[in-house]
Amino acid sequence: MAANPTPLVNGEKANRREQILAAAAELFAHHGFHGVGIDDIGAAVGISGPALYRHFRSKDAILGEMLNSISRYLLDGGTTWAGRPGTPDDTLAGLVAFHVGFALNHPALITVQERNLANLTDADRKQVRALQRQYVEVWVRAICEAMPELGERQARSAAHAVFGLINSTPYNRHLGDGELAELLSRLALGALRAAG
Amino acid sequence: MAANPTPLVNGEKANRREQILAAAAELFAHHGFHGVGIDDIGAAVGISGPALYRHFRSKDAILGEMLNSISRYLLDGGTTWAGRPGTPDDTLAGLVAFHVGFALNHPALITVQERNLANLTDADRKQVRALQRQYVEVWVRAICEAMPELGERQARSAAHAVFGLINSTPYNRHLGDGELAELLSRLALGALRAAG
DNA sequence: CCTGCTTGTTAGCGCTCGCTAACCTGTCGC
DNA sequence: GCGACAGGTTAGCGAGCGCTAACAAGCAGG
């Protein structure tokens, strides 16, 4: 047998936190933050209730870490794609493909990030909002460069609208992943092209 | 003086239900169904807590009536616009304008309908889902007629994506209403045009 | 072998929530 | 006038919640 596919010997234990975050994301997406109990999250990973407090300070902390890491991932990916060489249209296409990929692979995270900002601690919300704003700004810059005739405020509204379009993946399970990715990319770029 | 603009003499009392529904919509949109208490809703309309039970059987009934009436309104409006004479492109433009108008005038209702389906009673959810499905079908038919080269499944996905685009109004308060309506319509139609 | 750390367990506290009960008041038909 | 009803009030119930306390099992290092 080859070595354990998980990087650590105590793989099970080391990614308990990730396990919990993934299960909580699924539950939060389906029932909303207040609709999910500590016991539900525990049960979903095979432990029961208060054992979660060995890994997280509070229920709010679970949501906080979840949304923080999502926002950071999007911002990092966005800045990376925006920094690649190429025409403005290429950059925009890259951003679209990146966001579509994320939305397709993690529909639950998309749902949680869209719906549960208001349930964060004040401090966490501040952080997450800041990251989200920066991500939007990456898009705004890319849109403005690709279509200079568009004002910055219009570009920002267009960015939010395109996020809404792409983030429809949770309701969009009729098509196969590849086909849906291609369709969403075409729709998003078509919308942006029509903005100018 | 002309007659009272409200249809009944006891106008204040007659639309208590509407008043409650409007306040609850705003609260549900901001904090989620489980994040809002009976007392919060009461306070928002100037009465306190259990007085709500003079007008609604339960908290679930408030959400149920809210989502039912939204879905019915959308379906009615959608079928009306879809039935008007004109080219398929005109029909699509009419549907877009109708949905944009609703999303702009009632961002809270849009938010509630998107996020709180899971909090409904089984019976209510069944009803609402049926209405929503019918509304989607109105769009699917219109899309298929306007771009016959598109399959029905693709059209359904495109419809959901366009809903997501238009329903971004709650995050989209940078532009004036008229300007935003015009931009969203252009984006939506541009996306649909790019689908074919 | 003992010590201590990690990661579980169960019991239970304190609080909040949806909802009911019991009571009060203004308005209207007769 | 007066009874009935519509639409409010406050008090309080039972259940469920987040979280803590107290304890137990497995394992590591000396």
UniProtKB/TrEMBL annotation, chains A, B:
<keyword id="KW-0238">DNA-binding</keyword>
<dbReference type="InterPro" id="IPR009057">
    <property type="entry name" value="Homeodomain-like_sf"/>
</dbReference>
<dbReference type="InterPro" id="IPR050109">
    <property type="entry name" value="HTH-type_TetR-like_transc_reg"/>
</dbReference>
<feature type="DNA-binding region" description="H-T-H motif">
    <location>
        <begin position="37"/>
        <end position="56"/>
    </location>
</feature>
<protein>
    <submittedName>
        <fullName>Helix-turn-helix domain-containing protein</fullName>
    </submittedName>
</protein>
<dbReference type="InterPro" id="IPR001647">
    <property type="entry name" value="HTH_TetR"/>
</dbReference>
<feature type="domain" description="HTH tetR-type">
    <location>
        <begin position="14"/>
        <end position="74"/>
    </location>
</feature>
<dbReference type="InterPro" id="IPR041490">
    <property type="entry name" value="KstR2_TetR_C"/>
</dbReference>
<dbReference type="Pfam" id="PF00440">
    <property type="entry name" value="TetR_N"/>
</dbReference>
<dbReference type="InterPro" id="IPR036271">
    <property type="entry name" value="Tet_transcr_reg_TetR-rel_C_sf"/>
</dbReference>
<dbReference type="Pfam" id="PF17932">
    <property type="entry name" value="TetR_C_24"/>
</dbReference>
